[in-house]
Amino acid sequence: MLQVSRAVNTDLHAEEVAIQYAKSLGLTPFEISSRWSICKKCQEAIRNEPSALNPFTQKMNSNTTFNREALKKELSVLPQRSLIAFGASCCERMLPVHEAFCLLEKWGDHSVLRSALDAVWSHLASPTLQLQDFRKLTSLCKAQCPSTEDFGNAYVEGAIDAATSMTCLLDVCRQIDVKSATYIGEFAYHTVYVFLAIANDPETELHAGKPDFYNQIIGMPLALAELQKQQEDLLFLKAAPSLDSATLDALRKSSSICGVRPFHRGLLKK
After folding, report:
1. Are the C-beta atoms of residues 82 and 237 closer than 8 Å to each other?
2. Do residues 251 and 82 make contact, with C-beta atoms less than 8 angstroms apart?
3. pLDDT of the chain along its 270 residues, tens only?
4. CATH says 68-256 is which class?
């Protein structure tokens, strides 16, 4: 066991201390694991870590891997309704993974997320929801977020991504929030990334510190398809003169046939 250096700020949480200590030794943190749920403060610290900690956020090639800053820049020029539409499109691809998780574990109520996303699409077409409605939906969606401490199946991280993305989407509905919209895009990519990593080798911890494995994952068709879909949505929203019902229906339909889709691929039966 490594002894924590005095140079490291021990007032930080365990995950933050681990990152700082590794860097103080001249190491580049590649991944981090925890036996408990990582708090929001530490999640933020991990997301903002400029090292290789999150392989799916590295800019190896702007066309072949997720780039948070590039997405944030693209989203920053969009009006609020387009930000909501982008987020809703991403959530449409993630929700089937949450449904698969709920079915396997007999936990939660997937219809809560489904109803919330349906409400957002309807609100985009014809604004009817009020601030208190978004707050209520946010509370309901948060309750549908599982913990990796309690579950270990292949869909748990995707289920977390879906529930968290829905709360971010509702934040974007309340006010212009480019940061939350960017997180939704990142979660959508992460859902695909984790699914591919587990599908190719359930013992993913064996590959810690082996970039070749992660490079293989980000080059797979499903991972590239997620990046392409996000780029297509951005171009579509920039070109759309108005988000009328037909435009929104086209965006929603195109997203519903993308992503992991466990049921469509025959991985699970309803």
Report:
1. yes
2. no
3. 334 444 445 567 776 777 776 666 666 565 555 545 566 677 666 666 655 454 444 433 445 789 999 999 999 999 999 999 999 999 999 999 999 999 999 999 999 999 999 999 999 999 999 999 999 999 999 999 999 899 988 999 999 999 999 999 999 999 999 999 999 999 999 999 999 988 887 665 666 556 787 788 888 999 999 999 999 999 999 998 789 999 999 999 999 999 999 999 888 888
4. mainly alpha
Q: Angle 211-218/178-200 helices, nearest 10 degrees?
A: 110
Which long-range contacts link 104-113 to residues 24+ away (Cβ below 8 Å)?
104/153, 104/155, 104/268, 105/146, 105/151, 105/153, 107/146, 107/151, 108/144, 108/146, 108/159, 109/144, 110/144, 112/140, 112/141, 112/143, 112/144, 113/141, 113/144, 113/162, 113/163, 113/166
What end-to-end distance do the CA atoms of the chain give, in Å?
46
Total residue length of the chain:
270
Residue 152: CB atoms within 10 Å: 8
What is the maximal distance between C-alpha atoms in the chain?
61
Sequence-distant (6+) residues with CB within 8 A of 38 are 15, 46
CA dihedral sign, ordered 117, 121, 126, 127: positive
What are the residues whose beta carbons fall under 8 Å from the beta carbon of 241, sequence distance 6 or more? none
Tokens 């601030």 label which residue? 131
State how far the Cα of 263 lies from the Cα of 270, in Å rounded to an integer.
Answer: 7
Global pTM value: 0.77
Q: Give residues with Cβ within 8 angstroms of 82, minimum separation 6.
A: 237, 238, 240, 243
Domain positions in the chain: 14-53, 68-256
